[in-house]
Design a protein that fits this description.
The chain is α+β, with helices and mostly antiparallel strands. The protein has one domain: q2cbj1_9rhob like domain (Jelly Rolls). Helix content is 21%, strand content 24%. It contains 6 helices and 11 strands. The strands form 2 sheets. The protein has a 7-stranded antiparallel β-sheet. The chain has a 4-stranded antiparallel β-sheet with strand order 5-10-7-8, with no helix packed on it.
Length: 248
Amino acid sequence: MQYLNTELMNAIDVNSFRDAQPYPWLNPVGMILPDMLPRLIEEMPPLEQFTPTFGYERKFGQTSHDRYMLEYCPDLDISPHWRAFIDELCSDTYRDFVRRLFEVNNVKFSFQWHYTPRGASVSPHVDSRRKVGTQIFYMNTEQDWRAEWGGQTLILDDHGEFKRDTSPPVEQFYNCTEAVIGENHSLIFGRGQKSWHAVKALDCPQDSYRKVFIVRYEKARPIKKLRKRIAGMLKGEPAPEPGQQTVF
């Protein structure tokens, strides 16, 4: 079965993506084939599998990014449709798409689901330096989410003024663009020194959740990874436990 809309992927203009302001980003609709999207939405992992991450201290004084989080690993109990979708994301077709957008030769992926409740938000921040970029698949439908409830990813422009190790509020940015998070929309953006972004505070009913599936891109450094693994073995460090971040 095929889940990704390869025709749309091939039609994306690389130069338009890279020239976007204030940093490379794209908010396409229809990246998942319309016949396959309902199956993925219906079979989203249950909340019981998620780990609550609320009230933890972040670097640089930024407020907590409160949500329920589930990290993918090969032995995770998920539906056959989700397993097949992730397998397709690990394929050469998707990997070549990412390489083309970001001009990288080697890239590795990791995957997460986030369920975010009423009252939560994500404060302005720049992602870790090890990341190349991200694709966020918005997994709510027109029936279970309204735009006025918030949850939009915010593309923020600081005109290059803020340092990464600060915590400016949204109001201090010169421009704030809200990504469309409606059904079958996604957001692709690159990581750079000024790739500030946030998530608009949620004002949804208590029993509603903003649901996303995230693909994170990192530069693959196989030699560095091997050296680190050998060094860990020499020190007697245990192998990663299931549930820790797994990259592909």
